[in-house]
C-alpha cells in the first residue's frame, strides 16, 4: 500500500513511494474531494480522489472501493493507479490515484450539446452505449452490481471510449431480503448510495421477501440511454420540481413524439426500462440487441430546428 506524506508548503504528496505535485482542485462531493496532480517521475496527470473516513465503517467502505477497482480490470472501467490511507487522528483519508480523463464526464458532454441546442448522433450514442454495456458486463460477470450508474459516473476519453467510475456503491449482485427489517436496511442504503433519478423502482420500496439483483443496473442503464437521446434523464425534471420520483418510476417510460432517433433505438430503450425487475432483461440481452442496431447518422450533431 505504501506510505503517504503530505508536504503542504511544496504541494507534494507521496503514494507508494512515488511523488506527485498538486496542481488544482477538480471536484468536491459530500465526503470526497478530487484534485489534479502531476507525477514527478513520469510527468503525467492523475486525478487524486480523497475520501474522508470518519470512522471504521467509513474506512471499510473506502477499502471496499479499492477492492472493487482491483477486482475489475477492463478497458471500459476506470483503473486504479495507486492508493493509500492517511491517518489524521481518530479519522483518516483514503487516497485513490486514478487516471486523469481530460474530456470529462458523459454528463458534461450532454450539457455542451444542450448549450449548443444540438443533439447526439445515433452512431455516437451506439458507440458510447456499447462501451458502457461492455464495462457493465465485466462487473456483472464478477458477480457484482455498480448500483449508481449515471452520466456523471461515465467518463469519456479523447476517442469517446466510456469508462465507468465511482465504484464506491458496488456490492454483490444478488441481495436476498428476508423480512421487513432487512428490507428497510436495503432501502435505507439505496437512499444514501443510489442517485434518486437513476434508482431502480424496486429500491424505492423494497419488499420484505425478495431478491434484489444486478438488473437494478439495467434500469439505470436505460436512464443513461434516455439522457443521451434527450440530453436529460427521464426523471431529472421530476426530481428538480420536487415531485415524487418513487411514483414516477412506476409508470411506463415513453419518448416524446418529436424524438428523431430510429425506431430500433427507441424500442431498445422501452425494453430496458421495465418497472418490474422480473421482466427486465439482463446485460447479455441488451448487448445482443445492440448487434442488430446499425449505426445511423440520420440525427446529426447540428443545431436543432
Automatic annotation (TrEMBL):
<dbReference type="GO" id="GO:0005794">
    <property type="term" value="C:Golgi apparatus"/>
</dbReference>
<keyword id="KW-0808">Transferase</keyword>
<dbReference type="GO" id="GO:0004674">
    <property type="term" value="F:protein serine/threonine kinase activity"/>
</dbReference>
<keyword id="KW-0418">Kinase</keyword>
<dbReference type="InterPro" id="IPR000719">
    <property type="entry name" value="Prot_kinase_dom"/>
</dbReference>
<dbReference type="InterPro" id="IPR008271">
    <property type="entry name" value="Ser/Thr_kinase_AS"/>
</dbReference>
<dbReference type="InterPro" id="IPR011009">
    <property type="entry name" value="Kinase-like_dom_sf"/>
</dbReference>
<keyword id="KW-0723">Serine/threonine-protein kinase</keyword>
<keyword id="KW-0067">ATP-binding</keyword>
<protein>
    <recommendedName>
        <fullName>non-specific serine/threonine protein kinase</fullName>
        <ecNumber>2.7.11.1</ecNumber>
    </recommendedName>
</protein>
<keyword id="KW-0547">Nucleotide-binding</keyword>
<feature type="domain" description="Protein kinase">
    <location>
        <begin position="20"/>
        <end position="293"/>
    </location>
</feature>
<dbReference type="Pfam" id="PF00069">
    <property type="entry name" value="Pkinase"/>
</dbReference>
<dbReference type="GO" id="GO:0005524">
    <property type="term" value="F:ATP binding"/>
</dbReference>
<dbReference type="InterPro" id="IPR052239">
    <property type="entry name" value="Ser/Thr-specific_kinases"/>
</dbReference>
Amino acid at each position: 500500500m505504501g506510505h503517504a506524506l503530505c508536504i503542504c508548503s511544496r504541494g507534494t504528496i507521496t503514494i507508494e513511494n512515488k511523488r506527485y505535485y498538486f496542481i488544482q482542485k477538480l471536484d468536491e462531493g459530500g465526503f470526497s474531494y478530487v484534485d489534479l496532480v502531476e507525477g514527478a517521475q513520469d510527468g503525467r496527470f492523475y486525478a487524486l480522489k480523497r475520501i474522508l473516513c470518519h470512522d471504521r465503517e467509513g474506512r471499510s467502505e473506502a477499502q471496499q472501493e479499492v477492492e472493487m477497482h482491483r477486482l475489475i480490470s477492463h478497458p471500459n472501467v476506470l483503473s486504479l493507479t495507486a492508493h493509500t490511507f492517511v491517518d489524521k487522528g481518530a479519522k483518516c483519508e483514503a487516497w485513490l490515484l486514478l487516471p486523469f480523463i481530460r474530456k470529462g464526464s458523459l454528463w458534461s458532454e450532454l450539457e455542451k450539446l444542450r448549450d449548443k441546442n444540438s443533439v447526439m448522433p445515433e452512431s455516437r450514442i451506439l458507440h458510447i452505449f456499447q462501451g458502457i454495456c461492455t464495462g457493465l458486463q465485466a462487473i456483472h460477470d464478477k458477480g457484482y452490481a455498480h448500483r449508481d450508474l449515471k452520466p456523471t459516473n461515465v467518463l469519456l476519453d479523447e476517442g469517446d471510449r466510456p469508462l465507468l467510475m465511482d465504484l464506491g456503491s458496488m456490492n454483490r449482485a444478488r441481495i436476498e431480503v428476508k423480512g421487513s427489517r432487512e428490507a428497510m436496511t436495503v432501502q435505507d442504503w439505496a437512499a444514501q448510495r443510489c442517485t434518486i433519478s437513476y434508482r431502480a423502482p424496486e429500491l424505492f420500496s423494497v419488499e420484505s421477501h425478495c431478491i434484489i439483483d444486478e438488473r437494478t443496473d439495467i434500469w439505470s442503464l436505460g436512464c443513461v440511454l434516455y439522457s443521451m437521446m434527450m440530453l436529460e434523464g427521464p426523471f431529472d425534471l421530476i426530481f428538480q420540481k420536487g415531485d415524487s420520483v418513487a411514483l414516477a418510476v412506476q409508470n411506463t417510460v415513453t419518448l416524446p413524439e418529436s424524438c428523431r432517433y430510429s425506431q430500433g433505438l427507441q424500442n431498445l430503450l422501452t425494453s430496458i426500462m421495465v418497472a418490474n425487475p422480473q421482466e427486465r432483461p439482463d446485460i447479455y440481452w441488451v448487448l445482443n440487441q445492440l448487434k442488430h442496431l446499425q449505426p445511423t447518422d440520420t440525427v446529426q450533431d447540428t443545431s436543432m430546428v
